[in-house]
Write a structure and sequence with these properties.
Shape: globular
Oligomer: single chain
CATH architecture: Alpha-Beta Complex
Largest sheet: 8 strands, mixed
Strand content: 15-25%
Number of helices: 10
Radius of gyration: 19 Å
Bound molecules: ligand MTE
Helix content: 10-25%
CATH class: Alpha Beta
Length: about 325
């Protein structure tokens, strides 16, 4: 995919008021001018939001035309069980996550295993901004401007062996920084995995930021995966290890309940989750709230053109 010269960040094509409002909040938080009137969770969240800019060029080839979800929802309605199981917990609690120094080890069936410092990883390839539709298995969705580069760039760097069939992603698990680890709902660390061709697909993004700024901690700072044709839980956050394997890796949610969460977890309106219909979805941030008309969920979340060929001949009801 070619690079475009024009530097347009999604921030420039997003309703301006949303941005101005957020900037005012961040500035006010930094200056300590919130006063005592604000709810503590609110000021904590505002402080956790990092105003550090990332320089990324919008790639229109991967930019959904849907209206983007306002920053405030993207950063306050999260799943990050290491910080609690309520949607508001990560924004309230992730302030304790230390994102620098941070190293990520890339190992397993590769010619050139490497341990990279986050700053070296950031510089490995040019940063792009891509607007992706994201859909959660629970039935809600968002449209998010992510900043990163294709995971394939890092994979090319370590030269996988022919025997490498899968890639495993392992998140940080540190009890000191992550209060949610006290609960054993998941067998920590959080793990996810992709088949090699899925990991190499140009849509799979190694992600460092959103909305042109470094990832807020609640969104998986300092580095996460984003896989837009799969349910949100495939997108592991705060990754410390990437491992190439011959065997299909065990993933956190399929270990939790293999009847509910399969390894592939491709967005598919025809394959219902035992507890949730996958036929329609609710866009977070729609001003009509619960009364907003439901949107029809698309096969592979609307990315069939780029990904369907990888699953040709596979029974998607069996391999869900
Ligand atoms: N990664 C880790 N380490 N821990 C988690 O609990 N939750 C997953 C995924 N990655 C999760 C994770 C789920 S269920 C979703 S829906 C997405 O992160 C949410 O990402 P977001 O909060 O940035 O929208």
């Amino acid at each position: 995919m070619g690079w475009i010269d024009k530097t347009i960040l999604a921030s420039q094509i997003t309703p301006k008021a949303v941005f101005e409002n957020r900037r005012t909040l961040i500035k006010a938080a930094a200056a300590g001018s919130f006063g005592a009137a604000l709810a503590p969770w609110f000021s904590r969240q505002a402080l956790a939001a990092s105003p550090d800019k990332l320089s990324a060029t919008l790639n229109p080839a991967y930019s959904a035309k849907d209206e983007v979800t306002p920053y405030k929802y993207v950063t306050t309605y999260n799943n990050f069980y290491e910080f609690g199981t309520d949607k508001s917990d990560p924004a309230a609690n992730a302030g304790s996550l230390i994102t620098r120094p941070w190293t990520i080890s890339v190992e397993g069936l590769v010619k050139k295993p490497v341990t990279l410092d986050i700053d070296a990883l950031l510089k490995l390839a040019p940063m792009e901004e891509r607007i992706y539709r994201m859909r959660c298995v629970e039935g809600w969705s968002m449209v998010i401007p992510w900043d990163g580069y294709p995971l394939s760039k890092l994979i090319g760097h370590v030269e996988p062996l022919g025997s490498a069939k899968y890639v495993e992603f392992i998140s940080l698990a540190d009890r000191k920084q992550m209060p949610g680890l006290r609960s054993n709902i998941i067998d920590w660390p959080y793990r996810e995995g992709l088949r090699m061709d899925e990991a190499m697909n140009s849509l799979t993004l190694l992600t460092f930021g959103l909305y042109g700024e470094v990832l807020p901690k609640q969104n998986g700072a300092p580095v996460r995966i984003v896989v837009p044709w799969k349910y949100g839980f495939k997108s592991a956050k705060s990754i410390v290890k990437i491992r190439f394997t011959e065997e299909m890796p065990k993933t956190s949610w399929s270990q939790f309940d293999s009847r509910e969460y399969g390894f592939y977890s491709n967005v598919n309106p025809q394959v219902d989750h035992p507890r949730w219909s996958q036929a329609t979805e609710r866009r977070i941030g729609d001003p009509k709230g619960m009364f907003a008309p439901k949107i029809k969920t698309q096969l592979f979340n609307g990315y069939a053109e780029q990904v369907a060929s990888m699953y040709a001949g596979m029974d998607l009801k069996k391999y869900y």
